[in-house]
Every structure is written in C-alpha cells, then in structure tokens.
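Run log // design_07
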C-alpha cells in the first residue's frame, strides 16, 4: 500500500462528500495510492457511460482516453480564455506520463498531445497558447510532439508564451509555435543533449562490495555504473547524442523557418539566451510581459488585431554572422538584401513589441496603425493592472481588453475603488461624539449613591 496516510483518510472511514466527487478522487488518485487498479462497487453506472467509468483513464500515444473523458463530461482538457486554448508546459517534461496537465513538477508529452489534439478539433477554439516554463526533459517523445505542434499551427495560430524558461526539450516545443514571446528576464535555448554516467566502482570498493554482472551479448552492460566508462563506449554514446542534437537542430529549423537555420542552431553550441539577446539570435520573436502579450493574442484571434506567423517580421537569420549569434547586442539591427521586401529591411531588436508587417491591402499604413494602437492600449492596460495590484485592487486585464475598455477609464475605475475604500475606512475608525449618547440611568444612580456617601 502506497501513501498510507492518504489511504487511511480515504478508506474505511465515514466521509461527508458528494459521490461524484469521491469518484473523481478515486479515479485520479486511487491507483496511485493503492498501486493497483480499482473497481467501484455499489454505484450504478449507465451502460452508455460504462466505457468512461473504467479506471483509470489515460492519455497515451495510441489512445486518448483521458481527453475523451473530459469531453464526455462536458469539460475541455485545457483552460479556455475567449476562444484561446491555454496549454501548460512546465517543469520536467517526461515520456509516458499518461496524465493531462502539470503534476508534481512534471508535464507529460502525451498529456500535452491530448490537449493539443482536443484543441485542434474544437470549433470553439480559435487559437492555442503554449504557456512554457521548463528546463527540459526526456528525448523520447519530444520530437513527435514537436511535429504535432507544427502541424496544429497550419489550422490555427499557435503562440508560445515563455513564462521564464524554455530550455532544451522546452525550447524544442516552443520553437514549433508561430510566434515566441518572452519577458525581459526570460531565457531560451540550450539546443543540446546530455547523458550522465555515474561510476560507483570506487565507492563500492571502499565499502567492500563487489558487483559482478553476468551478461550475454558484448554490449549488454555498456555504460553500467559499477565500472569506469570504457573509451569505446564513450565514443559510441557521444556519436548517439551528436545525432540527436542534429535532429534537435533540424526540428528547430523546421519550426523557426528562415529565422533560425539548422546550422545556426548548432552554432549556438547549446548556449542559453536571455531577453533581447534571444530575439537577436533568432531564437524568439518578441520581448514583452506575458500578460499584455496574451491579451493582444486574444484580441487578435477574435478579429481585433493582427496575427503574426512563422517568418513575419523576423530578422533574416542568414545575414547574421556567427559572432552576432554567439554574442548578440541588445541594439542589433539586421539589414536585408536589396531584393527583400521593405518590411524586412531593418528590424530593431528592443524591448518593445516587434513591428507588424502591413498586409497586402489597399491601405497598409492604416492597418499597421490600427494594430499598433491595439497593442499599445493592451500594454497600457497591463501596466494599469500591475499598478492596481500593488495597491490591492484586482483588475482582469484580459477582460478589459476584450470589452474594449480604454486605459483612462480603467485608471479612473481603480481610483474610484481606492477612494471608496478610503472613505469606508475613515467611517469605520472615527468614533461617535460622546454627547451623542445619553448617560445610562444605572450609571447615574451609582454616581448619586457615591456622592451621598462622600457627603456623610
């Protein structure tokens, strides 16, 4: 029996809980607590629901039972904000995790794929936001999921919002989005592979322990931790991870287009880039705070702005030297050749949102101006929201953008709330004047008795 303390509180003890909640608890945690499958007895399940009552539902490569159960119950296996599916990619990324969402500091590739598939087939979803904060994870499964993200963006816009870190496997997934946004302190990269070998032979020898591995096949025990790593085995492992790194770089190039070629990805030598350096090196597209950037994305997918996609308003990566890739400058500007389009001739790398190229319409200047105004207002609304939070006033910035509230109106609303709160506090702390209440008859009688006693 695993997790004994949880088990003793859940089983063989009276509970005041609604049955459906108990079933949800047992479906999700029961197998982990007991270490085995559970069968519910004494609860009637409709025949048509029998398949969904089987425990446990799983997110897998060949089946998608967990996402199907969510949808059968009328829920979506992802957060939904005004037509945008938000899929979390955080913590350690693992293969065969078989759950949806983040769990105990880990996120499952299969769970992400299940959410992505559900979002792609949901007609109510107009865009997908990947919220990424991960230092990476396992090689197994990551490239197949990267291909799925790249395929999904052909039908619906997919943006990656780096909460703070998108390294290694986390960046492999982020690189497949149409647009990558990170904050000033955010970092991306680490396009490389690592294998760790632990040699315990010295420790075991000091402890007087001898481990004998009896094996069949010359390479059966290659890389075992009970002996030093032989040079031929080291060379073979090095060749394997070099091959995986090449696949990593090719996957990044497939997602990033001309912004980052496979050769340029390999030239980073697994270095990590922060903020504007990431944009200069072609690993990201925009430096912005995630809240205002997400609000702009929500507005765009709902027809109130422009959607950027792969290759638009990105620097032509082939014109960056290796030195500028490895040691980018925050004020770098990339120059395009003479035969390139006008909007690609100079892209300043600053902490403000990247310029949006004008679509081939009759009045491109007006369209670009409208987009700039939407983004500027969204950024100002986010600033007002952050200032309000510091004084204890909660503001839903995304809702404000959705409802078309202007920054001045939102700022006035915050000031009104502060003024109302201040007036209420003043009323609460000011005591009534002493003359407002007459003296108690009992107290007056006590005073007269005391005064008569003194006079006698």
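design_07 sequence
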């Amino acid at each position: 029996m695993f997790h004994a303390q949880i088990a003793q509180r859940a089983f063989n003890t009276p509970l005041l809980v609604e049955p459906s909640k108990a079933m949800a608890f047992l479906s999700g945690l029961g197998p982990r607590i007991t270490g085995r499958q559970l069968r519910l007895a004494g609860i009637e399940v409709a025949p048509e629901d029998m398949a969904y009552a089987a425990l446990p539902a799983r997110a897998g490569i060949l089946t998608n039972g967990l996402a199907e159960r969510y949808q059968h119950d009328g829920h979506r296996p992802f957060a939904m904000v005004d037509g945008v599916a938000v899929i979390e990619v955080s913590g350690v990324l693992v293969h065969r995790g078989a759950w949806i969402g983040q769990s105990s500091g880990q996120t499952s590739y299969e769970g992400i794929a299940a959410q992505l598939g559900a979002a792609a087939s949901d007609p109510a979803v107009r865009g997908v936001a990947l919220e990424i904060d991960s230092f990476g994870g396992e090689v197994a499964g990551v490239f197949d999921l990267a291909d799925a993200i790249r395929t999904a963006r052909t039908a619906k816009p997919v943006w990656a919002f780096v909460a703070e870190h998108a390294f290694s496997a986390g960046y492999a997934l982020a690189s497949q989005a149409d647009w990558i946004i990170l904050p000033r302190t955010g970092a991306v990269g680490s396009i490389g592979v690592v294998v760790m070998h632990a040699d315990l032979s010295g420790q075991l020898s000091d402890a007087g322990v001898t481990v004998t591995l009896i094996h069949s096949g010359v390479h059966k025990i290659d890389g075992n931790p009970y002996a030093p790593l032989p040079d031929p085995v080291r060379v073979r492992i090095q060749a394997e991870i070099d091959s995986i790194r090449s696949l990593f770089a090719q996957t990044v190039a497939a997602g990033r287009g001309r912004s980052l070629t496979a050769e340029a990805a390999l030239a980073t030598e697994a270095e990590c880039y922060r903020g504007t350096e990431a944009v200069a090196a072609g690993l990201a597209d925009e430096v912005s705070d995630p809240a205002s950037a997400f609000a702009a994305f929500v507005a765009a997918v709902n027809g109130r702005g422009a959607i950027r996609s792969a290759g638009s308003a990105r620097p032509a990566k082939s014109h960056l030297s290796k030195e500028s890739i490895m040691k980018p400058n925050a004020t770098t500007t990339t120059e395009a050749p003479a035969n390139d389009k006008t909007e690609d001739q100079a892209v300043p790398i600053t902490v403000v949102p990247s310029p949006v190229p004008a679509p081939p319409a009759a009045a491109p200047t007006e369209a670009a101006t409208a987009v700039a105004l939407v983004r500027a207002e969204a950024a100002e609304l986010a600033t007002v929201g952050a200032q309000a939070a510091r004084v204890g006033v909660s503001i839903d910035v995304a809702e404000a953008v959705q409802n078309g509230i202007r920054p001045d109106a939102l700022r006035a609303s915050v000031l009104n709330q502060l003024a109302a709160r201040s007036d209420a506090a003043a009323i609460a702390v000011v005591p009534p004047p002493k003359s407002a209440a007459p003296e108690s008859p009992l107290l007056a009688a006590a005073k007269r008795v005391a005064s008569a006693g003194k006079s006698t």
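The chain has a mean pLDDT of 75.
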